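Review form for a predicted model. The reviewer records the input and the model, then writes brief findings.
Reviewer: anonymous (R2)
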Amino acid sequence: MSRNCSSRASFPVLAMLLVSACGGDGGTAPPPPPPPAPILVEKGSPSGDAQTVITGQAIAVPLRVKVSRSGAAVTGQDVTWTASGGTIIGSGATNADGVATAAWTVGNIAGPQTANATVGTASTQFAATVLTATPGVLGLAFPGSAGNGQTGNAGSQLGNELRVMVTRGGVPAGGELVIWQADGANAFFEPAQTTSGVDGIATSFWTLGTAIGAQTATAFAGTLAGPSLGFAATSVALPPGTATVKLFTAGGARFEPATLVIAAGTTVSFVWQDGFHDLVPYGNPSFPGQGGGFDPPKTYQVKFTAPGTYKYYCSVHGSTTSGMRGTVIVQ
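Model under review:
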């Protein structure tokens, strides 16, 4: 009797074991989660790539990379910097925009040199042309096309770059530092420092100030006490109509242009180009924003009818004091 009860009791246990081995009630186990998207390391803007430098000197524009995953900036990511010559020092982990920079002092051997930024198995490479210093007295001259005398919208980048030729002893000199300075509120150069190429030419882009009328800028060779050349431009306000501000993530999260000067009655289209952004106005006067965040394609239009300075930022990539911010000045 005891043997029969034991035998009958074994059947449910065996059935449970068979059910468990066959996947329970016939369903399938959930698939494992997909692996995380790979990290992408790409050159930022300005990248600092392809500079010309004199042996043993530091590059004028820091190397800049943007680290992202699935189009979103990766914050706090360590970047490993290496160089084929000289010394290179990184700025630390990536910032809120996924950007990291490095200062590079090239080696003492003339010729091509390279630097690499690496995160895991992802990397990008920068190159520099390293020259032996040209002897002679430092000078500065206008090349055939210098970008002088342009007219552009106030607060916007001029259409043509500014150009100067650096010389030593009257001969074009490569690898020489040029410092660019713009006069007027909110005016600037990008980049603010450059080096001359093997042909002696150095270039930069001038973003005009927000004032209407004549504006000036200066290029200095070597130091602010070195030879200099002046530039002139005329800024105008956009007539009533339409204007566009683009929202970017690639190359650094930003509104482009960061400052827009328009006439009252102008409709501004905010156009999401890439990445995830919102549009948060602050201060007074103000305008209706777009909170919550959006991916492209998206366009949001605002008609600015009252004069004033309207400020805004993207809360994903900035704040009222730093990061991705913009201004519309209505006149």
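Findings: The longest helix spans residues 2-21.
Further findings: The two ends are 103 Å apart (CA to CA).
Recommendation: see findings above.
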